[in-house]
């Protein structure tokens, strides 16, 4: 019997994931053993502390370039940069999730199992503090995201995908107000997400078939699903490439679903609208970083040798995504749905950057992810503030005249919308400039043309909201803008400040992305 | 030569037994899949799916993956399909989907696209794999199938394996969050309180006598009697009222020997 | 003949199927037939059979929780099997890895137990 030994593991390099995984387990323990009254504070401190600690270790590992844990995990520039981005955006999201001063008990329901509309439900909606299970769930999701961008083979990537998705499905169902919408959103997200995961697995199997006969890391010629073997097979496999193309297509379906690219975007507006707003922000910022991080690694490292084959198809997907997002955003009447379609369009711009398979494309996409993440979190932070007696007032007609009633927050939101529209002095401009520059450098001029056109269409709904807020008289039904509690104020400040700084002085972050933009082979 | 090795099918050539089993079970698997989509009753759908899953389990065994074949049968057919049936019972056995289309032409489009996708993948795979022979099976199963899986699980995928526990925890938390209502103190009867209520006056603590326990004949029409001879309602189900037999009913019917 | 090891299992399956078919088929032929309403009533483990409501009767959600927990630990056990078979080859590190895995899944158990998910009332 041959001995099987543990593969060498660089524990330093995977510390961020271990910290978050450990903290989420401790979080579940807290849920089990700490009295109800103290859970919120304990969980909040635990989550923020764990994410900060993980962030510190990411910075500490900044120079690590290694493939570890038996080849399953690659720690390199893009991994560390994206992990850092996910963690920073994760801190901001946790601040939004932890806010309890806007509404008695916070934005989450106390017991999701109580039937909607029953007496017990009405009682818990106005009285009981929200469930704190949301914290370990978000930590689990963050663990999955960190693993997702670090995975160096398709199986580990799939586990990461599931670890990040499963908690998100649950978090969507926990809204305090409009619970039926929230549960419907969770169900839709879960059904379609499971379907997309199945596509990913199908593609994985086909790619594994394609690598047959290629020597893998473990010494035999049975192939494998790690990216080095796939890349070698793409270069010189004798198996018919039909397997490879079908595999890339199916894997791309799975990843583009999470990234909310058309035509796999149909879940986005319903889920963004139904989910509790802090969770929507979390999905729009962190999930997008994770999804594109994985997509970048797959496209660059594994299938980089076949970029001529997938670029036209994914280019068409990118163009479709930008146009669908922009055109449908024009017709929306709900601010959360508007931001959802804007997020779809932004997935298109990100895809334009990701399709430039070179260093510049990688760097600009990573920059765009960070810039967009901060702006969208700030946007959803403002949405949580505009309320009436029934919770958030998200219908656009209710926002008319908000500028007269609360000039400060209307001003902030105007700035955020201008950033989405890509006006200079905001991060939206620098990031769009960067990805379009990378795309034209890689010769995808037509994508840049479509991108600029769709940006012009997309500017219209943003400006309509701005005009509505400032040029209408406030009516009877105009809701009030609450003064944010400390946590939301902090999140909002961070988001707006980052949007401004990355618009005015983006050099240091651009430098960082350029230095990080190299995968380990 | 260990037992595990003899169990494994050879990598290259297809043996007669394998071919025969495949051609018997493949139509059955297909039948199960079609039946699942076709059946109007959700429980029938689930049982058709069990047929497909069982056939797939045997296929895995045929293809020299006995472990995954058994897991397919134990976890999928055994546990997950039973969860399916549980959920059907939660929703109600007779409840059926509304067949009214909210988007017109959706069903036709779904059938067309599904068939198109199947044809695309099917012909693509057939053309790609025609004449290709499988490689690597012997190497993968060199020390036995389960041992090979253990080797991969604890070397290359050891991190993925550990992280799988996160999925299991999330599933438990999710089941609790979405399906469990916590009772506060005072809402639940303690064991002592339950016992007191059981023996309180007006409640009969023992189990009810079964039908005909003290009856003189096995006929359901015979009323149940308590030991003191009085008639009791606590014998039959509520559908069957307590009544005395008429003399014609009590007369021998010729069925007793 | 590599598939020959499975022949006993197939034989057992066939025997089982034959036996059950035989039992079902023989009972109505040789058994006495004396029906009455009590015998024809549905048997529900001694509970009084109640008429089924429209919709077939819906089960309480508690069953779902139990089934879900069963699946979680079922999957955990599946992972134990290859580990147990290769225990000698894996040695100490495999033992530690497995303890870690079981320990983490145990957290789920502790959570469910403390939250009252195992109570039946």
TrEMBL record, chain A:
<feature type="transmembrane region" description="Helical">
    <location>
        <begin position="407"/>
        <end position="426"/>
    </location>
</feature>
<dbReference type="GO" id="GO:0008137">
    <property type="term" value="F:NADH dehydrogenase (ubiquinone) activity"/>
</dbReference>
<dbReference type="InterPro" id="IPR001750">
    <property type="entry name" value="ND/Mrp_TM"/>
</dbReference>
<keyword id="KW-1278">Translocase</keyword>
<comment type="function">
    <text>NDH-1 shuttles electrons from NADH, via FMN and iron-sulfur (Fe-S) centers, to quinones in the respiratory chain. The immediate electron acceptor for the enzyme in this species is believed to be a menaquinone. Couples the redox reaction to proton translocation (for every two electrons transferred, four hydrogen ions are translocated across the cytoplasmic membrane), and thus conserves the redox energy in a proton gradient.</text>
</comment>
<keyword id="KW-0812">Transmembrane</keyword>
<keyword id="KW-1133">Transmembrane helix</keyword>
<feature type="transmembrane region" description="Helical">
    <location>
        <begin position="134"/>
        <end position="151"/>
    </location>
</feature>
<dbReference type="GO" id="GO:0048038">
    <property type="term" value="F:quinone binding"/>
</dbReference>
<feature type="transmembrane region" description="Helical">
    <location>
        <begin position="363"/>
        <end position="386"/>
    </location>
</feature>
<feature type="transmembrane region" description="Helical">
    <location>
        <begin position="279"/>
        <end position="303"/>
    </location>
</feature>
<dbReference type="Pfam" id="PF00361">
    <property type="entry name" value="Proton_antipo_M"/>
</dbReference>
<feature type="transmembrane region" description="Helical">
    <location>
        <begin position="309"/>
        <end position="331"/>
    </location>
</feature>
<feature type="transmembrane region" description="Helical">
    <location>
        <begin position="482"/>
        <end position="505"/>
    </location>
</feature>
<keyword id="KW-0813">Transport</keyword>
From TrEMBL, chain B:
<feature type="transmembrane region" description="Helical">
    <location>
        <begin position="46"/>
        <end position="62"/>
    </location>
</feature>
<feature type="transmembrane region" description="Helical">
    <location>
        <begin position="108"/>
        <end position="129"/>
    </location>
</feature>
<dbReference type="InterPro" id="IPR042106">
    <property type="entry name" value="Nuo/plastoQ_OxRdtase_6_NuoJ"/>
</dbReference>
<feature type="transmembrane region" description="Helical">
    <location>
        <begin position="157"/>
        <end position="179"/>
    </location>
</feature>
<keyword id="KW-0874">Quinone</keyword>
<dbReference type="GO" id="GO:0008137">
    <property type="term" value="F:NADH dehydrogenase (ubiquinone) activity"/>
</dbReference>
<keyword id="KW-0520">NAD</keyword>
<comment type="similarity">
    <text>Belongs to the complex I subunit 6 family.</text>
</comment>
<feature type="transmembrane region" description="Helical">
    <location>
        <begin position="68"/>
        <end position="88"/>
    </location>
</feature>
<keyword id="KW-0812">Transmembrane</keyword>
<dbReference type="Pfam" id="PF00499">
    <property type="entry name" value="Oxidored_q3"/>
</dbReference>
<feature type="transmembrane region" description="Helical">
    <location>
        <begin position="20"/>
        <end position="39"/>
    </location>
</feature>
<feature type="region of interest" description="Disordered">
    <location>
        <begin position="200"/>
        <end position="257"/>
    </location>
</feature>
<dbReference type="InterPro" id="IPR001457">
    <property type="entry name" value="NADH_UbQ/plastoQ_OxRdtase_su6"/>
</dbReference>
<keyword id="KW-1003">Cell membrane</keyword>
Automatic annotation (TrEMBL), chain C:
<dbReference type="GO" id="GO:0030964">
    <property type="term" value="C:NADH dehydrogenase complex"/>
</dbReference>
<keyword id="KW-0812">Transmembrane</keyword>
<dbReference type="GO" id="GO:0005886">
    <property type="term" value="C:plasma membrane"/>
</dbReference>
<feature type="transmembrane region" description="Helical">
    <location>
        <begin position="6"/>
        <end position="30"/>
    </location>
</feature>
<keyword id="KW-1133">Transmembrane helix</keyword>
<dbReference type="GO" id="GO:0048038">
    <property type="term" value="F:quinone binding"/>
</dbReference>
<comment type="function">
    <text>NDH-1 shuttles electrons from NADH, via FMN and iron-sulfur (Fe-S) centers, to quinones in the respiratory chain. The immediate electron acceptor for the enzyme in this species is believed to be a menaquinone. Couples the redox reaction to proton translocation (for every two electrons transferred, four hydrogen ions are translocated across the cytoplasmic membrane), and thus conserves the redox energy in a proton gradient.</text>
</comment>
<comment type="subunit">
    <text>NDH-1 is composed of 14 different subunits. Subunits NuoA, H, J, K, L, M, N constitute the membrane sector of the complex.</text>
</comment>
<dbReference type="InterPro" id="IPR023043">
    <property type="entry name" value="NAD(P)H_OxRDtase_bac/plastid"/>
</dbReference>
<dbReference type="GO" id="GO:0008137">
    <property type="term" value="F:NADH dehydrogenase (ubiquinone) activity"/>
</dbReference>
<keyword id="KW-0472">Membrane</keyword>
<keyword id="KW-0813">Transport</keyword>
<dbReference type="Pfam" id="PF00507">
    <property type="entry name" value="Oxidored_q4"/>
</dbReference>
<keyword id="KW-1278">Translocase</keyword>
<protein>
    <recommendedName>
        <fullName>NADH-quinone oxidoreductase subunit A</fullName>
        <ecNumber>7.1.1.-</ecNumber>
    </recommendedName>
</protein>
């Amino acid at each position: 019997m041959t001995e099987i030994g543990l593969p060498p593991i660089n524990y330093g390099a995977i510390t961020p994931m271990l910290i978050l995984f450990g903290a989420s387990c401790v979080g579940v323990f807290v849920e089990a053993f700490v009295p109800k009254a103290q859970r919120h504070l304990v969980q909040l401190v635990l989550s923020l502390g764990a994410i900060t600690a993980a962030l510190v270790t990411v910075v500490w590992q900044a120079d690590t370039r290694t493939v570890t844990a038996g080849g399953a995990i690659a720690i390199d520039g893009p991994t560390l940069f994206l992990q850092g981005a996910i963690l920073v955006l994760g801190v901001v999201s946790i601040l939004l999730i932890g806010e309890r001063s806007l509404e008695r008990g916070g934005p989450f329901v106390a017991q999701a199992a109580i039937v909607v509309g029953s007496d017990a439900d009405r009682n818990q909606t106005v009285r009981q503090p929200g469930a704190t299970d949301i914290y370990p769930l978000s930590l689990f999701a963050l663990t999955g995201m960190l693993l997702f961008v670090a995975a160096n083979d398709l199986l580990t990537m799939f586990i990461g995908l599931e670890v990040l998705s499963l908690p998100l499905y649950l978090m969507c169902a926990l809204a305090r107000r409009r619970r039926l919408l929230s549960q419907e959103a969770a169900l839709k997200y879960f059904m379609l997400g499971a379907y997309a995961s199945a596509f990913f697995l199908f593609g994985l199997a086909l790619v594994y078939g394609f690598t047959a006969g290629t020597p893998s890391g473990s010494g035999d010629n049975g192939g494998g699903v790690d990216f080095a073997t796939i890349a070698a097979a793409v270069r010189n496999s004798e198996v018919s490439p039909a397997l490879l193309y079908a595999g890339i297509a199916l894997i791309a379906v799975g990843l583009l679903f999470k990234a909310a690219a058309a035509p796999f975007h149909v879940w986005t507006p319903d889920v963004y609208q139904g989910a509790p707003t802090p969770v929507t922000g979390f999905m729009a910022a962190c999930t997008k970083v994770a999804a594109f991080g994985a997509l970048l690694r797959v496209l660059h490292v594994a299938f980089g040798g076949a970029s001529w084959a997938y670029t036209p198809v994914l280019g068409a997907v990118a163009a479709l995504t930008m146009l669908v997002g922009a055109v449908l955003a024009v017709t929306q009447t709900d601010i959360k749905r508007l931001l959802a379609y804007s997020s779809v369009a932004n997935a298109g711009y990100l895809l334009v950057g990701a399709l430039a398979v070179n260093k510049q494309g990688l760097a600009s996409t990573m920059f765009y992810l960070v810039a967009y993440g901060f702006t969208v979190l700030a946007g959803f932070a403002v949405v949580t503030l505009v309320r009436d007696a029934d919770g958030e007032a998200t219908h656009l007609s209710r926002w008319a005249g908000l500028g007269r009633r609360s000039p400060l927050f209307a001003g902030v939101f105007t700035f955020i919308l201008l950033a989405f529209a890509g006006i200079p002095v905001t991060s939206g401009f620098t990031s769009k400039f960067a990805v379009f520059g990378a795309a034209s450098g890689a010769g995808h001029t037509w994508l840049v043309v479509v991108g600029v056109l769709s940006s012009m269409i997309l500017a219209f709904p943003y400006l309509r909201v701005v005009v509505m807020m400032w040029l209408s008289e406030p009516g009877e039904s105009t809701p009030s803008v609450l003064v944010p509690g400390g946590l939301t104020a902090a999140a909002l400040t961070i988001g707006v400040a980052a949007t401004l700084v990355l618009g005015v002085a983006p050099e240091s972050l651009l430098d960082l992305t350029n230095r990080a933009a190299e995968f380990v082979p | 030569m260990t037992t595990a090795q003899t169990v494994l099918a050879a990598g290259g050539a297809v043996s007669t037994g394998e071919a025969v089993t495949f051609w018997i079970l493949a139509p059955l698997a297909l039948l199960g899949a079609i039946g699942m989509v076709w059946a109007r009753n959700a429980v029938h759908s689930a049982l058709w799916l069990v047929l497909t899953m069982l056939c797939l389990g045997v296929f895995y065994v045929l293809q020299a993956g006995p472990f995954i074949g058994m897991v397919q049968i134990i976890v999928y057919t055994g546990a997950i399909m039973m969860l399916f049936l549980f959920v059907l019972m939660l929703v109600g056995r007779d409840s059926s989907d509304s067949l009214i289309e909210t988007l017109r032409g959706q069903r036709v489009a779904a059938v067309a696209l599904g068939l198109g996708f199947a044809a695309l993948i099917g012909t693509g795979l057939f053309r790609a794999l025609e004449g290709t022979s499988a490689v690597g099976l012997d190497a993968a199963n060199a020390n036995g199938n389960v041992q090979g899986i253990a080797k991969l699980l604890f070397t290359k995928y050891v991190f993925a394996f550990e992280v799988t526990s996160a999925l299991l925890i999330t599933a438990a938390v999710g089941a609790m969050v979405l399906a469990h209502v916590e009772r506060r103190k005072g809402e639940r009867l303690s064991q002592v309180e339950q016992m007191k209520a059981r023996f309180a006056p007006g409640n009969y603590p023992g189990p009810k006598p079964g039908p005909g326990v003290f009856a003189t004949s096995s006929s359901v029409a015979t009323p149940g009697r308590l030991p003191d001879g009085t008639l009791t309602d606590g014998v039959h189900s509520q559908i069957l009222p307590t009544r005395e037999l008429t003399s014609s009913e009590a007369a021998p019917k010729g069925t007793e020997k | 003949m590599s598939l020959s090891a499975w022949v006993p299992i197939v034989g057992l399956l066939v025997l089982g199927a034959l036996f059950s078919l035989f039992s079902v088929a023989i009972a109505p032929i040789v058994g006495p037939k004396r029906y009455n309403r009590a015998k024809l009533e549905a048997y529900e483990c001694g509970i009084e059979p109640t008429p089924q409501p429209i919709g077939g009767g819906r089960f309480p959600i508690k069953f779902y929780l139990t089934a879900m927990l069963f699946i979680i630990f079922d999957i955990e056990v599946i992972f134990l099997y290859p580990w147990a078979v290769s225990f000698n080859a894996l040695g100490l590190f495999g033992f530690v890895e497995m303890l870690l895995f079981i320990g983490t899944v145990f957290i789920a158990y502790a959570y469910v137990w403390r939250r009252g998910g195992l109570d039946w009332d």
